[in-house]
Amino acid sequence: FVHLYRGGKDQYEGQIPEYRGRTELLKAGLTDGNIPLRILNIRHSDEGQYLCFVQDDTFYEETILELQVAGLGSAPLISVEGHQDGGIRVICQSAGWYPEPEMLWRDLNGRHLPSLSETTSRGDNNLFGIETALIVKKHSNQNLSCCIRNTVLNQEKESAVYIADSFFLRVTPWKVALSVILVGLFGFIGLAAYLFKMKDKRDNEINQSKAIFLKNGHSFSDKSLPVIPVLGYCHPVCGVNATSLDVCLENVFKAFLSASVFPFSFAKFTVIGPRDPVTTILGQEAVLPCHLSPPMSAANMEVRWFRSQFVSFVHLYRDGKDQYEGQIPEYQGRTELLKAGLTDGNVLLRILNIRHSDEGQYLCFVQDDTFYEETVLELQVAGLGSAPLISVEGHQDGGIRVVCRSAGWYPEPVVLWRDLSGRHLPSLSETKSRGDNNLFEIETALIVKKHSNQNLSCCIRNTILNQEKESAVYIADSLFPRVNPWMVALSVILMVLFGFIGLTAYLFKMKGKLTEEVGKRHTEIDKRDNEISLGSAPLISVEDHKDGGIRVVCRSSGWYPEPEVLWKDLSGRDLPSLSETTSRGDNNLFGIETALIVKKHSNQNLSCCIRNTILNQEKESAVYIADPFFPRVNSWMVALSVILVVLFGFIGLTVYLFKIKGKLTEEVGKQNLEIGKCHFPSSEKKDFIQNWIFMWECNESLVTGSDFSFCGGCSIPTLPSSPRPCPHSAPSPKVP
């Protein structure tokens, strides 16, 4: 059995093991024939049919009823994953649902959006988990929500998110600038190659022209040659937190409210209402309970529900029917006396479409011909607002600004930011306002840092209903601000291009001034106080990159006398410090600061120890620096450096070749002019080629200040000591 009550007490021998410690027969209603069973901590296996069997000495009877189990899962977690297909990939995840839920993506207007993919799984606890993805395009469904519905309970949970324009991919000015610079550089290289080719072609044409002029006996100067200048970028979902779920199994449901009855001997009945306020939700209906004690029929009595004034009533029942003349206008068409219970003394009032103005006290007045009685009860109105809308606004203060908004709450709700572990997070700002409908609107903001609370939720709680709505979001690493490779590349290029100009200007203007730093130390020795002080625990700061490592600084204050400072590695060996500074404050206590350079794979695990030599006590702090924080060679920088070295090397080689070619052209031109100065008689022009070779042989003996003789019509120098005769014995021609 699930539960057995016999002999005036519960019997547990033979009980199904799965129900031990989880069942209870509610004995308060046994005298009235009510035998409800409470089952605690409902499980999936509890679902199914139950038989309620009742037996006395001579008779027994039973009935069958069915228990249906349903589970509301966790709040949908919306994860903003990263860029994909020109948009941003958004994933919605939730777990702990039973039975398998329905999942919908909706835009701001409530229209359904098709999902990119959807996956449903079932865990070891037989509860369902769901995951669905969607691609969000810029200017299209940036404001969307993920809604998961339990079809049995007809309840849903929803989380909403908004993604700002700044997170979508766009053309950056850095890329544009880098593209322009690269196009300019390659254009310059192409132009230089073209000009080099054109210059070579023109030089050949000039040389050919000179040869023709020489052949025709004309002379000219190279000064007549032309000079050509060369120009050189759903609502929150809670899981099946089955803490305690009461299930009553009974044949007949009756509600009995106890109250004290004053012992007036002349009283025919007492009107009894609830002691605690009746709580209802805005827009729904409320039933105000009120009954007569002892139970008697109120069908022929006058039942009046009113507030502050007896004449202006909320609802009036008299002479066996409802009376509406004199009813408060705000309640017209919204009230109903439940007549099904009048014969039992129940005079319940139903109010439809609850408004904010319905909150307050109500009087239940019952009168027969000779006697009347009344009681006062209070209606408390509460409003559950919309699902929190989490907006991923933009970058701020090195992180991402996230804003949570919701409206339609009453009374003023409590707002909390929570991380994945449920810890509360302090908000950056919080604003609450009240609209024309007297409902509260709330807006709160938070700065999310990378690797810190990227998985968070916004929870808004109604303290009266003790209900909350929650939306969760996850922000992927790729959306956080980071160093752009295009920016690095452009910076390197600009540094190389303009650095040379700046260095040249600096070297040109540098006057060799030397600067001296004059520091003064206090030479006064303060009287030593009798107090000896241990300072604060060392604060180790990982400052920045320096000299191929990481600069680590250790600081502490409040020491007396001046302490000793040591850096130690994991093995306890002392490490030399880069610098050490000691200062003394107004309270005569010493403060100390020391620095150290930590290299990769060398003393990454180190500690800073500060010792008071008098007390022989020390305080120590340790730190470990992981490999990813050490500077490393950037592939973009290496590739870009190689490209720049090749580009500038090519430009330098081009300039050098232009210069060498100019010199060679000038030398050839001079030799051609020298040859052109030797004029041959017309009778000997046919021997032009022989004379050309002859003159080159003669030029080998050319020495400044030597004697000259005529050989083939040219002045041929000969050495005074050993004159070299001309290789040809032709007679010297007459020189005109």
From TrEMBL:
Q: What is the predominant subcellular site recorded for this chain? A: membrane
Q: What is this protein called?
A: Ig-like domain-containing protein
| GO biological processes | regulation of cytokine production; regulation of leukocyte cell-cell adhesion; regulation of T cell activation; T cell activation; T cell receptor signaling pathway
CC terms in the record's Gene Ontology section: external side of plasma membrane
Subcellular location per UniProt equals: Membrane
Single GO MF descriptor: signaling receptor binding
Which CDD domains is this protein grouped with? IgV_MOG_like (cd05713)
Q: Which family does it belong to?
A: Belongs to the SKINT family.
Superkingdom, taxonomy of origin: Eukaryota
User: From which residue to which does the signal peptide run?
Assistant: none
Residue ranges constituting the Ig-like domain according to the UniProt record: 263-380, 538-624
Transmembrane stretches in the record are 176-196, 486-508, 636-658
In its UniProt entry, the species of origin is given as Mauremys mutica
Q: Name one Pfam family in it.
A: V-set
Q: Which UniProt keywords apply?
A: Disulfide bond, Glycoprotein, Immunoglobulin domain, Membrane, Signal, Transmembrane, Transmembrane helix
